[in-house]
Amino acid sequence: MLATRSDIADLQQQFQDHGRVLIADLLSTSFAAQLLERARQWSEWHLVTRIAGQHREFDGEQMRLLPAERIALFNQMVHEEARGGFQYLYERYPLYEKARLQQLHDEVFVQAYALLRSASFLKLLRDVTGLDQITHTDAQLSRYRAGHFLTMHDDSADSLGRAAAFVLNLTPDWSVDHGGLLQFVDRNGQVERAFTPRFNALALFRVPTVHSVSMVPPYVDRARYALTGWARTGVEERLPQAA
Questions:
Q1: Range 189-207 average pLDDT
Q2: Could you report the per-residue pLDDT of 51-89, keeping only the tens digit for each?
Q3: Which structural domain range is residue 30 located in?
């Protein structure tokens, strides 16, 4: 399901020069379209954010049914956290966690997850980044809708062995005006480069790299879909066996 490539040397050079690269046409066209259609139909989203400094997850469908006054209060708490530091608000479906618990059953998502864990994808990551120590990946499906965002951070997490991060965009016909841009920030706090979501294109960048996802404005009536995750090093931790 990975598309055949002849541009590895060029991608290697871009990553070496900048610590990031955009890889067009990662998947076969047919599978990319199939994956997008499944994401559009999906309903089991977790709305994620930080409240009082702690990661929180909520049932996405239940949150959408809340009365307006409770949604307004929730947004007030989310925005207050953002004023104080790191914050995010978007929807996800945790492929990695579901798969490890043997709870990933949707056929299309099973195929997508297997591809991101495959020897061919790991080889592509190692070849482009030059990081031969990459051993495995994790991944989630994400959905950004109006009001969703991710503030500046660098993805560093010493205990997780993150060597590089990736974002496989699945949204066609997306505009800069729709927000949801992956923004890379230099040491002076300036946006050095930004990737506008592009269908079937993989953004790959070194960890740590300071970046953010710009807010999707309130007038946007569509969603930005992506498969996001990390290329990791070391031995993957095994889940404890049930007694």
A1: 98
A2: 999 999 999 999 999 999 999 999 999 999 999 999 999
A3: 8-43+107-233
The distance of Cα 87 from the centroid of its chain, to the nearest Å, equals: 15
Task: Using DSSP bridges, classify how beta strands 162-169 and 182-185 pair: parallel, antiparallel or unpaired.
Answer: unpaired
Report the C-alpha gap between 74 and 66 in whole angstroms: 10
* Contact present, 20 and 209 (Cβ < 8 Å): yes
Q: What angle do CA 115, 56, 177 make, to 5 degrees?
A: 65
The answer to the question of residue 190 being in a domain is yes
Could you give the number of structural domains in the chain?
A: 1
The answer to pTM > 0.90 is yes
Sorted by sequence, the CB contacts under 8 Å of residue 39 that are 6+ apart come out as: 141, 143, 170, 225
Between the alpha carbon of residue 170 and those of residues 87, 157, 239, the distances in Å are 24, 26, 30
What tens digit of pLDDT does each residue of 82-129 get? 999 999 999 999 999 999 999 999 999 999 999 999 999 999 999 999
Residue 74 belongs to a domain: no
